[in-house]
Design brief:
The complex is a heterodimer. By secondary structure, chain A is mainly beta. Chain A contains six helices and 50 strands. By secondary structure, chain B is mainly β. The chains are: A mainly beta, B mainly beta. The interface between A and B is large, with 98 and 101 residues. Chain B: This is DUF4249 domain-containing protein.
Chain lengths: 793, 307
């Protein structure tokens, strides 16, 4: 560690020296290129060749570079667009807009935006455009960007119908999920069957598995950045889709011609409404639905200033009543959801400096209640974040760029308020709210040390302080309260942590479109998700680092070889990684998480390790496009109080993970896509034996009365059957070249084509009456057809 | 109340899964088991016949046996003692009683293998082993050349003020339709925080049965007084009782580690599916390859006719 820090410091000093030298080139002129499509929407991540030297626009389609006076040939290209070429003369600072025309046929192909992967100094990153995601087969036709990224190597899901994402051996709470830069704490609808991201509102999604840039932090394993699209600045447009379980509608258009636009997208499921129409008597008041609304507005103040407003709100509503002869004997209702709003100001100060300032608020709430005939239970929980973020970019010369900034977040945790009854007896519980300050500052430099070697070195310094007001109940080692409490005043420090997080990425360009990359990343996580189950629940609680709960720490080294061949048709990435994690959190078996003032007493702490090799072979152009991803990996955990202190496989340790994604253009009107996935089964703790307990005797019948209890030995020593599945989809566009305003297409999909019964979970059923022991497998989705009609006008 | 808290995710998940899932038999191949000695031991202050120790052994999951695999011929003793101010125990050697497998007239002189009693019960029940509130008890077991021990306390009993019945409902199954009522116990929780209770009852249907495991109990409401310390309690059990049945009710005050064991037992017996983690019993027995609990029960009783 110390050695690495010294290296980072050396590079920063080197960078400073080189930068001061670079400022002497005052005769340089700034060229800013804005890449837009035919409706003036930015085209992110475009490749720009200036006199045959490649550069890359950012996610908003903008690139700034310094050039000396002279004539230049500019070639701009991007996935799904025709290439544009311009010859310009630079005599002074210049800004140009380059418009790219969409290539419909190419848009329909599935290509990970890896075209610049080879020459970009960012290892372990994948980007997917929404236009590509929409063509892939998905369950019941519900397009889901979060599900799709699990088709990439190193990014795994938890199994059938699970939205938990596990990146390189990390847990589901170790991913920084961002919606336009705003953290999303509960990105799932319906227990993880669907994510909160409506495909109509999303422009692209990027996942960073390692070599995290210094501007990102707060989670150990990955950054999953979902970017929403901007509205049309020319005219009002509508688009949408009607699917089997939900419908979507989007409206977009100008607020101020050419300067400001809006886009609003909404969707709602209607399983509940359909079920009530078909079987009103049996469904009754039972039902489930979710809705979500995404909105975005932008305002281009002038060439150098722009404002962006992002808004999201969504709700899940689940009601279940068990009707009995004497009226409802069980009634359950839960409503939960996120509301997110963020305002960003982007400014180009001059040809060297630009910055972004964001102010965001993020809120998650759950309200639920269960009623029995004599017992009832009401529970609510949530959290709210207020965050301010400021990022600066300084580009004194073409070969060096500096980034710096800070983030400050005020966390308010509402761990739970509840009220349970047993007849007239009430058990009221109010877990004290918790508060914390989280802040980070960072600086990084991106230097072309030679024409072949690029270094990005950064240092992030993060700080966390859990503060009052709160009151802590003191518990003894047996879990019993001691009767003592500890009170903290508003703002009074309860626990404070701060750590440096060095990051470094090296790129060495090899001849013939190949490169080697190496990265070292240290990350710190101050929040933990309190969950004991394999599924994700809205009642899962985020808990802050405290006196007992230490922040999670991870260090990762990744190395990769990137090679393009076949005249750019193919790309091969091979990456190896090794990651260690400390202060990993688990809960004691049978731990009670809800309304538990002593939740810290239910926790145990350990460490983790993950390593593996990822292969990614992509075909980027032609009638057939797609990729093959393969991961060979190992993820394990070690806890003193579990498995006799020996290392055991992480539940989502997946030795082999394969994904094959293909898209084939069948002609002008039809195209086909297919997905095949295979993964080693999850690791489970299964019983090895059983015994009887709570023994009694029926003296009259001479019969024993007892309960069978399972005996467990090693942790996660059993493997579920392998998971594999094949899906296909066909997209039919009736009038692909229609010049009319109204356009539509149909997507026909078949999920799980060969009807693989992938286990959702397995268990052993012990029937004490029939005296049988039988293993059982529960599976969810057989072969499922889906059809969606998409339209826009 | 505890169950209700865990219900939120589990209820939601199972309701969802029940709607869309399918199930089939599946061959689950399990590893061989390391056999454990299973100890179920009780000492209480009210029911001398209910002070006993059951010894059994665990087996492979797919083994055919479903009843207790008794461990016979063990040497089992219980000794009374006092907890001293320095947290050490002073055991009264004269109080040591050896428990043996025996034929008791209370069970028609049938031998219950692996069940160890104070044999005085057969001749002079009044002098048989009995717990005294405020005292501690040492359990010692020797079997198979190994020694296992455990200590428990019989706390001071809580006073049941009264029992009432109400919350009537119609209980309908395949054979019968009955109106039933629910039972409410009224008592004052002690002012000291950290008290824990279990609840048992004997009804007409369980009248002839023997053993704590054969009594009725609401397994979902073992409770702590963390939220209701010092309050006057009116706790209604969700179980149904047949009208006009006579119910002997036992409120059992237990120390925390005994409560923790029975809490883990209740979680273990409910445990299944992807929405929970495997639960190991929080054993209170010391020794090698042993699971179980020596439960010191401080019992208060009252009887009610269900109306």
């Amino acid at each position: 560690m110390g050695k690495t820090n010294r290296k980072v410091s050396s590079l920063l000093v080197l960078g400073l020296l080189l930068m001061s030298n670079a400022v002497l080139y005052a005769q340089n002129h700034n060229l800013t290129i804005k890449v837009l499509d035919s409706v003036q929407l930015p085209v992110g991540n475009a490749t720009i060749k200036i006199n045959f030297k490649s550069r890359f626009a950012d996610s908003t389609g903008i690139i700034s570079t310094l050039l000396t006076k002279g004539k230049y040939r500019i070639v701009v290209s991007a996935v799904g667009h025709y290439t544009a070429t311009h010859n310009i003369t630079i005599n002074s600072d210049t800004t140009i807009q380059v418009f790219l025309r969409s290539r419909e046929s190419l848009l329909q192909n599935v290509v990970v935006s890896a075209k610049r992967n080879i020459m970009r100094n960012q290892i372990s990153v994948h980007s997917l455009e929404m236009a590509q995601i929409q063509k892939l087969p998905v369950i019941l036709g519900e397009v889901d960007p979060l599900k799709t990224i699990t088709l990439l190597p190193g990014v795994k899901n938890g199994g059938e119908a699970s939205a938990g994402i596990y990146v390189r051996g990390g847990g589901p709470d170790q991913n920084l999920v961002l919606l336009d830069g705003i953290p999303v704490y509960n990105p799932n609808h319906l227990l993880g069957f669907f994510s909160v991201f409506n495909g109509d509102a999303v422009k692209n999604i990027e996942v960073i598995k390692g070599g995290m840039p210094a501007e990102y932090g707060g989670r150990l394993s990955s950054v999953i950045a979902v970017n929403t699209r901007d509205g049309n600045k020319d005219s009002v447009k509508a688009s949408g889709g009607i699917g089997l379980i939900s419908s979507r509608l989007s409206l977009e258009g100008p607020l101020l011609k050419k300067r400001s636009s809006f886009v609003i997208s909404a969707r709602r499921t209607y399983i509940d409404q359909v079920a009530r129409l078909i079987a009103p008597d049996s469904i009754g008041s039972n039902g489930y639905f979710f809705y979500d609304i995404n909105a975005k507005a932008d305002y281009i103040i002038n060439n150098n200033n722009a404002l962006y407003l992002t808004f999201y709100t969504g709700k899940d509503d689940f009601t279940f009543a068990d009707n009995d002869n004497d009226g409802p004997s069980r009634e359950f209702n839960a409503i939960w959801g996120n509301t997110i709003i963020g305002l960003t100001w982007k400014q180009q100060l001059n040809k060297y400096w630009k910055h972004e300032l964001s102010v965001v608020r993020n809120d998650f709430n759950l309200n639920s209640q269960i009623k029995f005939s004599t017992n009832g239970f009401v529970f609510s929980s949530g959290l709210t974040d207020h965050q301010v973020k400021n990022d600066w970019v300084y580009t004194p010369a073409n070969w060096i760029r500096w980034k710096g900034g800070f983030q400050y977040t005020w966390h308010s945790f509402r761990p739970g308020a509840g009220n349970s009854t047993a007849g007239v007896q009430e058990f009221k519980s109010q877990i004290n709210d918790q508060y914390a300050r989280e802040a980070a500052g960072y600086v990084s430099t991106d230097i072309n040390v030679t024409t072949r070697l690029n270094v990005i070195a950064g240092l992030r310094y993060s700080y966390f302080n859990q503060v009052g007001p709160t009151e802590r109940v003191i518990y003894g080692p047996d879990g019993a309260p001691t009767g003592e409490t500890e009170y903290f005043k508003r703002g009074e420090r309860i626990a404070r942590y701060h750590y440096p997080e060095p990051r470094i990425n090296l790129l060495y360009k090899l001849p013939e479109a190949a490169s080697l990359k190496l990265s070292y990343t240290r990350t710190i996580q101050y929040l933990h998700l309190a969950t004991t189950s394999a599924a994700t629940f809205p009642s899962d609680l985020w808990v802050p680092a405290s006196r007992l709960i230490q922040p999670g720490k991870a260090e990762q080294i990744a190395a990769g070889y990137f090679k393009g061949f076949g005249n750019g048709k193919y790309e091969l990435n091979v990456e190896a990684y090794y990651k260690t994690m400390t202060n990993q959190l688990e809960f004691k078996p049978g731990a009670r998480l809800l309304l538990n003032q002593n939740i810290e007493g239910e926790m145990i702490f350990g460490s983790g390790k993950a390593y593996g090799i990822e292969l990614f072979l992509q075909k980027k152009t032609g009638k057939l496009t797609g990729w093959i991803g393969y991961t060979l990996s190992r993820a394990e955990r070690t806890f003193t109080d579990m498995n006799e202190g020996k290392a055991f496989p992480y539940r989502y340790d997946r030795t082999h993970d394969v994904s094959v994604v293909a898209n084939y253009n069948l002609g002008k009107k039809w195209e086909a896509s297919a997905v095949f996935v295979y993964g080693t089964g999850n690791a489970l703790t299964m019983p090895t034996g059983r015994f009887v307990y709570s023994l009694g005797y029926n003296v009259r019948d001479q019969e024993p009365i007892f309960t069978n209890i399972s005996q467990y030995d090693k942790i996660n020593d059993y493997r579920m059957p392998a998971y594999h599945r094949f899906d296909i989809a066909f997209t039919y566009t009736p009038k692909p070249h229609s010049t009319k305003r109204f356009k539509s297409n149909w997507v026909f999909s078949l999920y799980n084509v060969y009807n693989r019964r992938n286990p959702y979970f397995i268990y052993i059923d012990v029937d004490e009456d029939d005296r049988t022991v039988q293993g059982k497998q529960v599976f969810l989705f057989p072969v499922l057809p889906g059809v969606t009609w998409n339209f826009k006008f | 109340m505890k169950l209700a808290k865990s219900y939120i995710p589990v209820f939601l998940a199972f309701a969802m899964v029940a709607i869309i899932s399918c199930e089939r038999n599946f061959d689950i191949v399990l590893k061989d088991n390391q056999p454990q000695l299973i100890v179920e031991a009780y000492i209480n202050n009210e029911l001398p016949l209910y002070n006993y120790v059951i010894l059994g052994r665990s087996q492979n999951y797919y083994d055919p046996g479903f009843e207790n695999l008794p461990v016979t011929g063990a040497t089992v003793t219980i000794t009374e003692g006092t907890l001293l101010a320095n947290n050490s125990y002073q055991w009264n050697a004269a109080s040591k009683k050896q428990l043996k497998e025996a034929r008791l007239p209370q069970f028609g002189n049938v031998l219950l293998p692996g069940v160890y009693f104070d044999t005085t019960l057969a001749t002079n029940q009044a002098n048989a082993l009995m717990g005294t509130p405020g005292k501690h008890y040492l359990l010692e077991i020797e079997t198979g050349g190994k020694r296992h021990t455990s200590i428990t306390a019989v706390l001071l009993p809580l006073t049941i003020d009264s029992l009432t019945s109400g919350y009537h409902f119609i209980d309908e199954d395949e054979d019968t339709t009955q109106t039933k009522a629910r039972l409410t116990v009224h008592f004052k929780d002690p002012d000291t925080i950290g008290n824990t209770q279990l609840y048992y009852w004997r009804t007409y249907n369980t009248g002839d049965n023997f053993g704590w495991g054969a009594l009725g109990t609401n397994r979902f409401t073992p409770n702590t007084d963390d939220l209701v310390n010092g309050q006057y309690m009116h706790l209604t059990h969700s179980n149904g009782f047949v009208l006009n049945d006579s119910v002997n009710y036992y409120m059992v005050n237990v120390e925390r580690k005994v409560y923790n064991f029975w809490d883990s037992f209740n979680k273990a017996r409910q445990n299944a599916g992807p929405f929970s983690t495997p639960v190991k019993l929080q054993s209170t027995i010391s020794g090698e390859n042993v699971i179980g609990c020596f439960s010191g029960f401080s019992v208060s009783t009252k009887t009610i006719i269900i109306r």
